[in-house]
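$ ./design --mode recover --in tokens.txt
reading tokens...
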């Protein structure tokens, strides 16, 4: 369908009631899950800071075994020693730069070969860039880290997860997907035809992740595997550290002052990964732990299928 036609199609689908729900949900606290998760395995990408860090601690506090996929060895060592000393559980890590296709494939292969079940797989690693950057594979960086890495991992891991007959995949998405109000431009994923902006590229990558969730959800019907996405709240983390001094100054002096603690994100990610209340729920978007309808471009089945094929091609799967 033509780009203009798509845009008008989405405009017609927007509902004020959804925006009001989002505003209302943004004020809610996450539901709490008090059950333990002893010796269950949770894999978390990007656990060295912010939301991933607090989530690893939350699962560890309930007895889970932690396996992180991080890019920094020193931070990973520090995190695992801290978790093991404090909670007496096993914590290990795999090093991978999730902007690099070779690393993504290697680590996915390693995850596929784990002999025990992966009970919860949390895709959390992410970045926010104010300036366009391409990866060594020639793909826009935010798109790869925020979306393509989770796509490849899910795609390859699917057989293992299905064979377990029980697993939950959770993708840390964002209300920021709404920044891509016009939808995903599959003909310009590298932002060569349009002016790049941090909010737009971030929104597009998050829309892509929500679209992929729709298709993955079809592939896992009646398998015991679930896949959901969530907004982790507006929380104070290290996000955006790669950007210039003006952005960092603005973040420190304005944005950070309005943000909550990432402990609420961890609480929500624990609930979505463990609570029996959401055991059979799949293919949904949550604002923390409240189910919410995403923006119309994130529900476009036609684009979801096109993106699926394009992702397979881009990733060389
Ligand atoms: N903070 C918010 O308010 C908010 C709101 C909505 C959604 N989110 C989402 O929440 C997720 C976590 O973000 P955060 O706010 O917690 O930010 P953060 O503190 O910057 O944490 C990001 C994590 O991702 C890792 N990471 C970044 N690039 C990577 C790469 N190329 N390979 C492997 N790991 C990489 C970072 O590793 P290093 O420690 O090595 O940098 C870090 O562990 C992101 O997906 C973000 O979009 C956050």
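writing sequence...
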């Amino acid at each position: 369908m033509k780009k203009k036609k798509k845009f008008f199609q989405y405009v017609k689908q927007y509902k004020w009631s959804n925006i009001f729900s989002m505003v209302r949900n943004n004020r809610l606290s996450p539901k709490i899950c008090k059950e333990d998760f002893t010796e269950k395995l949770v894999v978390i990408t990007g656990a060295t800071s912010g939301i991933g860090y607090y989530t690893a601690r939350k699962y560890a506090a309930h007895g889970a075994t932690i396996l992180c996929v991080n890019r920094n060895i020193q931070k990973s060592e520090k995190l695992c020693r801290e978790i093991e000393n404090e909670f007496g559980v096993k914590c290990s890590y795999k090093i991978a730069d999730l902007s690099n296709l070779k690393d993504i494939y290697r680590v996915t292969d390693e995850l596929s070969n784990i002999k025990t079940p992966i009970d919860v797989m949390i895709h959390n690693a992410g970045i926010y860039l104010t300036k366009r950057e391409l990866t060594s594979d020639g793909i826009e960086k935010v798109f790869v880290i925020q979306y393509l890495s989770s796509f490849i991992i899910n795609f390859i891991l699917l057989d293992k997860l299905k064979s377990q007959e029980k697993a939950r995949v959770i993708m840390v998405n964002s209300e920021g997907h709404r920044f891509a109000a016009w939808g995903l431009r599959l003909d310009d994923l590298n932002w060569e035809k349009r002016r790049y902006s941090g909010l737009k590229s971030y929104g597009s990558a998050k829309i892509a992740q929500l679209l992929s969730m729709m298709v993955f959800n079809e592939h896992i019907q009646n398998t015991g595997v679930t896949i959901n996405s969530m907004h982790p709240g507006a929380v104070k983390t290290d996000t955006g550290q790669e950007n210039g001094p003006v952005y960092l100054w603005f973040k420190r002096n304005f944005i950070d002052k309005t943000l909550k603690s990432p402990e609420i994100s961890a609480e929500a990610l624990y609930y979505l990964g463990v609570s029996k209340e959401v055991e059979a729920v799949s293919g949904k978007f949550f604002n923390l732990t409240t189910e919410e309808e995403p923006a119309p471009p994130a529900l476009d089945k036609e684009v979801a299928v096109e993106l699926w094929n394009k992702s397979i091609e881009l990733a060389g799967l």
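exit 0
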